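Journal club prep, notes for RB
We'll compare a predicted complex against what the paper describes. Inputs for the magnesium ion case:
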Amino acid sequence: MVYYEACGKAEKNGKSVSAEESQATCNFSQWLFSQECSFIAGVDKMGVLPAPTLPEIAFAGRSNVGKSSLINGLLNRKSLARVSHTPGRTQQLNFFLLGNFFYIVDMPGYGYAAVSKEKIKIWSRLIQDYLRGRVPLKRVFLLVDSRHGLKTSDQTVMGELDKAAVSYQIVLTKADKSKPDHLEELMRNLTQTLKKHPAAYPTPLLTSSHENEGLQALRETIAELVCGSSH
Ligand SMILES: Nc1nc2c(ncn2[C@@H]2O[C@H](COP(=O)(O)OP(=O)(O)O)[C@@H](O)[C@H]2O)c(=O)[nH]1
Ligand SMILES: [Mg+2]
């Protein structure tokens, strides 16, 4: 029962589901994210992408948004961040294989201080190359710091994703740093903004890696995307 409660509401896509179904989704996603996770490849614009044989989900966001913390939190481990911080890999698409089920793609952070324009140019070229016809990519999770909301660089990336018609979803990070009123207003405004973005998933997810908030909901969203809903 404790296990079930840890998994949140008995609801899927806004519809109520039975406790049994909710429990099964929860069990499956927790099992999925406890699988072995291994670094497969760091890919730059000249590089070769892994064969498109498995589904992929990608994480993107400004530098320091909390991407490494979130990915580590989802997986309950620390190794992914270490790999992605390795010099030379910070401007690559880093591919990780979870079990033998799907790839997690850690995208380069963008929008950092003085070099933001140059970095976003490099990032844009890389993402465009990656996105062009990348059939197995199920969704890009675009991380946004809940204290700051959307920055210009986030909007640029959202424009790129809309143009490439790649499904993406905003994940708000560091929820523990803000008051509930601020978060409520941010969610309301974002939901309005997202209506104007054709490739955006309409609802953002609210998370805190430090307080383990929203991580299970994100695991379940990903499990559904990569493995379908039959679990
Ligand atoms: N308060 C709070 N800080 C966080 C959270 N997630 C990450 N951080 C902090 O934000 C900073 C950047 O985190 P990191 O995961 O390295 O971000 P990345 O550059 O996007 O990979 C670090 O100091 C983290 O401790 C969170 O959920 N809450
Ligand atoms: Mg990082």
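Talking point for the session: The pocket of magnesium ion (ligand 2) is lined by residues 67-68, 81, 84 (CB under 6 Å).
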